[in-house]
Sequence to fold (219 residues):
Amino acid sequence: MPKKWFVVAAAFAMVSGTGAREGHTGESQLKHDAGETRDVQAAAVERFLKGYDIAGTGLQPSYPKDYVCPPLTSLYASWIDVDGTRRKERHSGVDGGRLGDPVLAPAPGKVRRVWIADWSEGREGAVLLLHTREHLNLTNSPKFYYSEFDHLKYSDVSNLKEGQRIERGERIGQVFRPGGNGIYLPEVHFEVYEVDDDKALAWSVNARGTQFFKIQNLD
Ligand SMILES: [Zn+2]
Fold:
């Protein structure tokens, strides 16, 4: 029986960088963050809602031969959501998979963070992996890549430990639903960042009391 291989390195949709991950599914919560002026907030909210800093990459997903891969249901920079509805902002990653499909690491690396997230659909599990350029056999490239997986079930991923080594193809979770909520179609959201400084990763808490990250100086 052919192996399933949903997430592969070739499907990496390089993120040109919003600098923040919050609000990818629609509602930006930046306006709720303390310490920002009203003007800065308004500009940031508009940028995220309009997707001004997201552009298509032209990359097309491809999969290894002999692997059965569920379809991608919403592409990077797309305005169309998995259920066919129009998004409030351009999509900052790719969505795909069917309920229960294994989600596999796209490259070797280590677990950077596992956390309970809430992007406005409800509480769910999220995983951030860190890959060095050496992991990816790259030389002339940024030093690090993050791959992020959302809409997982937290209890499926809570066994992953920060700093834990991950091999390419290792199972890190399974496809679930945004917020674990049955009104949403199953999907995993997969997003990639390229960064030069791992210390630029900064965490904040949104209005729903869950963490989200920003990559400082990414623009
Ligand atoms: Zn998505």
User: Anything to note?
Assistant: The chain has two helices and twelve strands. The chain has a mean pLDDT of 81. The chain has one domain: 9-215.
